[in-house]
Amino acid sequence: MQKIIIVGGGLAGSCLGVQLVASGCDVTVIDSGVNHSSRVAAGMINPLVFRRMTKSWRVDEFIPYAEAFYQLIEQTSGISFFHETTIRRFFSSEQERNFWLERQQTDDFSAYMHVINEEDETVFPYANQFGSGRVKNCFYLDTTTLLDVLHSLPEIHLRRESFDYTELNPAAGTYQGEHFDSIIFCEGYQSKHNPWFGTLPVDSTKGEILTVETEGLSREESLNRKCFTLHTGNGRYKVGATYVWHTDDTTLTEEGKNLLLDNLRYLTDLPVTVVAQHAGVRPTTPDRRPLMGKHVIYDKLFFFNGLGTKGYMMAPLLSKEMADFVTKETPLHTECNLNRIRS
After folding, report:
1. Is 85 inside any structural domain?
2. So what's the pLDDT on residue 343?
């Protein structure tokens, strides 16, 4: 049985822990609890990239795998956190609307787009100058519940502490004197402090999100234009999210709150009351692709990071691919392999 340490218990590290346990490994997760971006996130799984109305990268693989992965965890834990939804995209221009009309009945897009009908043209009481389209195969997760479930799995040894780099012997694979077959770093934006992977291009992108109360917004659909809305129960909605690049400051700001409220006006003029505000820092990469692989010198050290804004869609399958790479040396997808940065 391989003994493995995962450094970082956010979404990437937690999903990887599940996959490694399923592969028969003895898994320890060390998590400082410093950044809560995985919990702050709305947990939306959206198959499309709006504006040019393209499909998300590898979406035809990611969505069915993610659905099966999350539903299996629900079944084994008896706790519900995975929900189907519909995203209603309000078009921001005639060009965007035309992109949808061109794609809605093609083989590549029919699984993700409803054909526009009369209701989509006249949805009330929302601002609807260019009409709207409804996205299929969308889901959202109660992210806090999911992570609580993953952290409570008895097969995974969770240690709530900071990882001490000085206690790791990378050549021997020992940490605090204990031998491990692999040490996998899933530290999010904090990887910049890592002595062995800190030069990899993982940037810090801050996001703020609001919880608001209002009456009249759809509870069945997530609305999207300039921002998104997501009903979380009892007349409360998440509204998000801001993007501030190159910062790891999680301070809540009036600027972020006001920007989200201004963007919400592109969807509705209904009065809202802000009841909470949260911030987290996402790990992003220059080419918007994850960074996965092994250290160029120390073959017991691995890196799994940079899932970014589509993390909840990508994490289940990418964590499986990472687990297979670590335990079976199965080759990684070329667009994920961190060797692309070195070449």
Report:
1. no
2. 52
Look at residue 34 in the predicted model and tell me its pLDDT: 76
For residue 179, the SS3 value is strand
Q: Is residue 274 in a domain?
A: no
Residue numbers of the domain that contains 188: 3-40+145-202+286-342
- Residue 40 CA, chain-centre distance (Å), reads 10
3-state secondary structure of 192: helix
What is the average pLDDT value for the chain, to the nearest integer?
Answer: 94
Q: CA quadruple 109, 45, 5, 280: dihedral positive or negative?
A: positive
* Dihedral sign computed on CA atoms, order 88, 274, 231, 259: positive
Contact criterion met (CB below 8 Å) for 341 and 305: no
| Nearest of 292, 265, 275, 30 to residue 125 by alpha carbon | 265
Q: Which distant-in-sequence residues (6+ apart) come within 8 Å of 334 by Cβ?
A: 340
Of all residues in the chain, the percent with pLDDT exceeding 90 is 90
- How does DSSP assign 1-43, residue by residue? --EEEEE--SHHHHHHHHHHHHTT-EEEEEE-----HHHHS--
Any domain includes 324: yes
Q: Quote the pLDDT of residue 158.
A: 96
Which residues, other chains included, contact 107 with Cβ-Cβ below 8 Å and sequence gap of 6+?
Answer: none
Q: CATH number of the domain that 36 lies in?
A: 3.50.50.60
In a domain, 337, yes or no: yes
CA separation for the pair 237, 215 (Å, rounded): 10
Task: Report which residue type is found at 84.
Answer: E
For residues 10-34, give the mean pLDDT.
96
Residue 127 has pLDDT above 70, yes or no: no
Give the number of domains in the chain: 1
3-state helix, strand, coil in the chain (%, to 5): 30, 30, 40
Q: Which helix (H) or strand (E) holds 199?
A: none
